Recover the amino acids of this structure.
């Protein structure tokens, strides 16, 4: 398979994509914790 | 339902079928039919993955779940983004490099034919039965609420989608899922808007959130710890969501052909990966918004009288049972509580307008007490329905949202939301039938027939397998009606009984490179399955030996396979090669 064809879009490497997804999850958990705290 | 609702329902469903048929043109060979010639861009892959996972019950159950138990169900999805990353790194490149048609094909390359057969058999068992239930579950809800005949509803729910699924295979499934999801999102947004719009004029969106939150419905994060001890039987908390949810998502997206088949249609490894990773980004916010509708619905029912139980058919059963007098007394108590709740919540909203914090706090405290009393009465009704004397179904979670829709939403929107129930079902059922047909063709037919079929023959046969599985699922749905609702619960946890073991086999294949002996992993999987079934049975004894949430069965199954394979590998290797 062609390497260019499988190059990561938006980010330079796939590793950055993976980090972004995990950081986004952590951010969601933090935001949801704040949401729970704010309204309970 | 009004005439306009019927027209909107008919147009939406006919439109989906016509669009599916329009997109049915594909090359007449196996790759064209079951993998859309591996030509899909990541956007379609993403929508197809989402449309396959989100069944009608997702949209019916989640708001009901938030209404009864709060928003903590969102934590069930916390393991999913991590699973998307792991699948993108380890699973997708292997499937892509080997150009497999099904996930189980890889296991024959890696181990042997019997390991492939075992995992595909577990897939047939689990997916075949659960797809039948996916037809039945929304049908019984629509049938109960609208008085429709259950057999005809089952037939429409499971039958019409066969037309385009059989005709266009994976390509038609993906394109219709794209259109289906757009309609579903529009409908759910309108429903959410209407819930807020129908609150009293002086109640703002943030007031609605405060009422819901103070009464425990915005508990999006819970730790599962009670009295400094972790509660293993608690189904949804941060830890079971991240760990149990991770294993469930890893198994579902990495090894269940109904999902693997979606990203194998991508035109490159890059498109598969982006589709999966985007799913990891959007899933938690999407579920949060669906649950939020249920939490706001809870506020709506503080200002308006809620039924004591949302499934009218079951309620009628209770009204005609030996408990009818006790129920009549309870109903009166519930009604007077509802009036008190309405008065208190109106006092609260007036105090919030006037910034009178003391009255606000007092009103909220009173509301909490009234809600607690109200919940206790609902619990009593559920207990009566579940009792052997009545023999009913005490779970009305799936009925809450649709009851609200039918009773409160304007003409036209009711038809659209009922259409959404159908098309959400069609999206997941079509993908499941397509994947069952793919496995029947690739993992059974191709392996066990001596005559080599031409591409055209395989295309034609795949269509027949699609029809066969479609009919099978409808038959299961009809059969379920005769057995009763208890089977639905059993099949809901069926996934967790098998998913962990299938995942374990794939984990051994991908990460334990020194294990080449197919016998070790095959018997390891059998022993792990027995372990999972034993653990499950022990939790179901009366009284249970111990209690654990069903999500934990996934890691038990996966680690069980790894453990037994490592244990058996040296023993079986010696038997094969005594000198070595």
């Amino acid at each position: 398979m062609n390497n260019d064809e499988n190059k990561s879009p938006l980010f330079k490497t796939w590793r950055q994509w993976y980090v972004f997804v995990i950081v986004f999850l952590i951010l969601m958990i933090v935001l949801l914790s704040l949401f729970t705290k704010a309204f309970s | 339902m009004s005439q306009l609702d019927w027209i909107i329902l008919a147009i939406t469903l006919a439109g989906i079928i016509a669009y599916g048929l329009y997109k049915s043109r594909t090359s007449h060979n196996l790759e064209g039919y079951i993998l859309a010639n591996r030509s899909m861009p990541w956007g379609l892959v993403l929508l197809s993955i989402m449309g396959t996972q989100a069944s009608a019950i997702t949209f019916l159950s989640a708001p009901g779940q938030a209404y009864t138990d709060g928003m903590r169900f969102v934590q069930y999805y916390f393991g999913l983004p991590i699973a998307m990353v792991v699948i993108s790194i380890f699973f997708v490149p292997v499937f892509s490099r080997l150009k497999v048609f099904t996930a189980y094909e890889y296991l024959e390359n890696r181990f042997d034919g019997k390991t492939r057969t075992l995992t595909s058999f577990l897939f047939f068992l689990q997916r075949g039965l659960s797809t039948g239930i996916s037809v039945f579950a929304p049908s019984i809800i629509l049938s109960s609420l609208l008085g429709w005949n259950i057999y005809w509803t089952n037939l429409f729910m499971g039958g019409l989608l066969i037309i385009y699924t059989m005709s266009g295979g994976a390509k038609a499934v993906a394109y219709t899922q794209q259109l289906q999801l757009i309609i579903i999102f529009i409908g759910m947004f309108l429903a959410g808007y209407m819930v807020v719009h129908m609150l009293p004029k002086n109640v703002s969106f943030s007031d609605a959130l405060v009422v819901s939150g103070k009464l425990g419905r915005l508990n999006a994060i819970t730790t599962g710890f009670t009295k400094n001890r972790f509660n293993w039987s608690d189904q949804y908390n941060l830890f079971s969501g991240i760990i149990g949810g991770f294993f469930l998502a890893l198994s579902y997206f990495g090894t269940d052909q109904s999902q693997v088949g979606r990203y194998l249609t991508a035109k490159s490894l890059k498109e598969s990966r982006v589709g999966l990773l985007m799913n990891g980004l959007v899933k938690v916010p999407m579920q949060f918004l669906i649950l939020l509708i249920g939490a706001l619905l809870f506020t709506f029912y503080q200002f308006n009288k809620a039924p004591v139980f949302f499934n009218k058919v079951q309620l009628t059963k209770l009204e005609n049972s030996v408990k009818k007098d006790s129920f009549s007394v309870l109903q009166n108590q519930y009604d007077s509580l509802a009036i008190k709740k309405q008065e208190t919540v109106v006092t609260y909203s007036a105090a919030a307008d006037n910034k009178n914090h003391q009255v606000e706090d007092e009103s909220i405290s009173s509301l909490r007490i009234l809600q607690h009393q109200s919940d206790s009465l609902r619990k009593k009704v559920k207990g009566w329905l579940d009792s052997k004397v009545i023999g009913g179904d005490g779970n009305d979670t799936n009925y809450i949202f649709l009851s609200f829709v039918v009773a409160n939403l304007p003409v036209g929107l009711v038809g659209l939301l009922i259409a959404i129930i159908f098309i959400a079902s069609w999206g997941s059922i079509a993908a499941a039938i397509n994947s069952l047909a793919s496995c029947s063709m690739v993992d059974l037919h191709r392996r066990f027939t001596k005559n080599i079929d031409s591409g055209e023959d395989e295309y034609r046969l795949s269509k027949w397998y699609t029809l066969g599985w479609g009919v099978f699922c409808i038959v299961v749905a009809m059969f379920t009606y005769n057995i009763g609702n208890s089977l639905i619960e059993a099949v809901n946890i069926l996934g967790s009984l098998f998913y962990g073991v299938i995942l374990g086999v794939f984990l051994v294949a991908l990460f334990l490179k020194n294990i080449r002996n197919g016998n070790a992993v095959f018997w390891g999987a059998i022993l792990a399955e027995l372990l999972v079934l034993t653990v499950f049975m022990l939790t179901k004894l009366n009284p249970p030996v111990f209690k654990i949430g069903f999500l934990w069965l996934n890691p038990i199954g996966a680690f069980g396979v790894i453990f037994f394979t490592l244990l058996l590998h040296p023993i079986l290797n010696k038997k094969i090669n005594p000198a070595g």
